[in-house]
UniProtKB/TrEMBL annotation:
Record's protein name: Voltage-gated potassium channel
Keyword Transport annotated: yes
Cellular component, GO, one term: voltage-gated potassium channel complex
Potassium channel domain ranges (all copies): 140-205
Length: 261
């Protein structure tokens, strides 16, 4: 069997995780400013868009280096589908939404390493990040669309909350193809989040019950086996009978009763 370790790849990821995390945060910040504070056609819009392209290019270079260092390239591609989508983004029509995958992929990789074993912290950070990105994406896609209902960023945040929790009031819904793609991804993420939360709660309850049973077992005296108790009772009875027999054997002979006249 081939070894699963990738020493060169792991060394590269250790060196680049935190710099790429800083770039991913910068990427999201620039994208948020572009969506919330500027409009297409403005000079500031084009400068921000150029900055996004530069950071996206760094993510692509990172993916190319990682797949070059990987010894089992097919397995690497299958295990990192989001990273592949980042590289293929220019070949898709909805480039702007797909470029968000770059930040999600990098931040998700670091979160898995930093919050491993801390399910609650990992879920909180992941859900907050996913909700913010989805709100930005659906707001940009919907705000200028005819018959759109998501017209402000506050509407987008409310829609994200009702969607990711699988409540779905139906008061707000995307009408564009891009917005519906965001909705599909968010609904799948909501199902995954609920499943993870349920599993975490069940695990916590099992751990608490196991710890309580262990403490009770240590504090309480061990219970005797009924068979051992019965055996002890029989031995006690036998000892009692043996004492009586010994007493009878050691007693002086009784005088014989006189015969009747």
């Amino acid at each position: 069997m081939e070894p699963d370790d990738e020493p060169r790849l792991e060394a590269w990821e250790r060196r680049t995780d935190y710099p790429l995390t800083a770039l991913a945060v910068l990427y999201l910040g620039v994208y948020a400013v572009q969506v919330l504070a500027t409009r297409p056609g403005q000079a500031s819009w084009w400068w921000l868009d150029a900055a996004l392209w530069v950071v996206w290019g760094v993510f692509v270079v990172d993916y190319v280096v990682r797949i070059t260092l990987a010894r089992r390239k097919g397995r690497f591609i299958l295990r990192h589908p989001l990273d592949l989508l980042v590289v293929a983004a220019p070949f898709f029509r909805f480039l702007r939404l797909l470029r968000l995958v770059a930040a999600i992929s990098v931040l998700g990789r670091v979160l898995r390493d930093d919050f491993r074993g801390r399910v609650g912290s990992y879920l909180l950070v992941s859900i907050s990040l996913l909700s913010f990105i989805a709100a930005l994406g659906v707001f940009e896609a919907e705000r200028d669309a005819p018959d759109a209902t998501i017209l402000t960023f506050g509407d987008a945040l409310w829609w994200v909350l009702t969607t990711i929790t699988t409540v779905g009031y139906g008061d707000l819904s995307p009408v564009t193809t891009e917005g519906r793609l965001v909705a599909a991804g968010l609904m799948l993420a909501g199902i995954a989040v609920l499943g993870t939360v349920t599993a975490a709660i069940a695990t916590w309850f099992l751990e608490q019950v196991g710890a309580r049973d262990a403490s009770e077992a240590v504090a309480a005296p061990p219970r005797a086996d009924p068979a051992d108790l019965r055996h002890a009772e029989l031995l006690a009875e036998l000892r009692d009978l043996r004492r009586r027999l010994d007493h009878l054997e050691s007693a002086p002979d009784r005088p014989a009763e006189s015969a009747p006249s």
